[in-house]
Amino acid sequence: GDKVSTVRKGMEELNNLVLKLVDIIMQLAPFGVYGLIGKTFATLGYTAMLPLLKYFIGVIIVLLLHYLITYQSLLIFVAKYNPIKFLKKFSGPMMVAFSTSSSSATLPSSMETMQDEFGVSKTISSFTLPLGSTINMDGTAIMQGVATIFIAQIYGVNLTMGDFVTVIITATLASIGTAGVPGVGVIMLGMVLQQVGLPLEGMALVMGIDRFVDMFRTTVNITGDAVCTLIVARTEGELKGEEVAASVKKNKLA
């Protein structure tokens, strides 16, 4: 009631402040990316670009396979939803994620799309999407696994089967603890490298191009959040029909 109105207003103002800070960081991010890539070229030279290109392509291929196999299967067999329709409706948040590389910055767009386009109730979307943007980082876990193998090859370290299991477990745990802001995934990579005895300096090898990788893995991350939201909404009976969603969207615009 009225007793908590001051606290609520303070939290809303704090939220607006954080969003404004994120907006400022997004405007400065291109200069940081330019500096990182420039440093990579200056310190490693053009000879390092081919291995980095292979690493980049490798991550993209695995992310694409994860999207096509894991997410599409969940959409078809669990959420009972057409993958083509899903892609058309959710393309907006995916583009926001691709351009900002931030799950947190994409959250408002994702919530609005899930409610207006898919007919997911606000009760479900307001719980699953913020939770997913915090702990559901499939793309980040994939990047950390591929980056660890890449760095091990650069330093000539042969990873055992036990090391691979350690990388899988540690990368998964590290991705859960990763914040939904740009560039944090490569910082959490240090935890994975330590677990298999690789030098932390190896992070510098991938940091220069991480912004580009981050754009793709963030897109995969928020897509996973949306798929999980559809599954929960379907199982809980909170998924409205497309006609109802269109009507709600029309009334909101009016």
Helix content: over 70%
Name the structural class.
mainly alpha
* Structural domains: how many: 1
Q: Could you state the order of secondary-structure elements as H and E? A: HHHHHHHHHHH
Q: Give the strand content.
A: under 5%
Q: Taking Cα atoms only, what radius of gyration do you get, to the nearest Å?
A: 20 Å
Tell the overall outline.
globular
Mean pLDDT: 85
**CATH homology superfamily name:** Sodium:dicarboxylate symporter
Distance between the termini: 29 Å
Described by strand count, sense and barrel closure, the largest sheet is:
none
In terms of per-residue confidence, which ranges show pLDDT below 50 for 5 or more consecutive residues? none
Number of helices: 11
User: Total number of β-strand segments?
Assistant: 0
The third-level CATH topology is: Proton glutamate symport protein
What does this structure look like?
The chain has 254 residues and is mainly α. Helices cover 80% and strands 0% of the residues. Helix 4 runs parallel beside helix 10 and helix 7 runs antiparallel to helix 8. The radius of gyration is 20 Å and the shape is globular. It starts with a helix and ends with a helix. The model has no long low-confidence stretch (mean pLDDT 85).
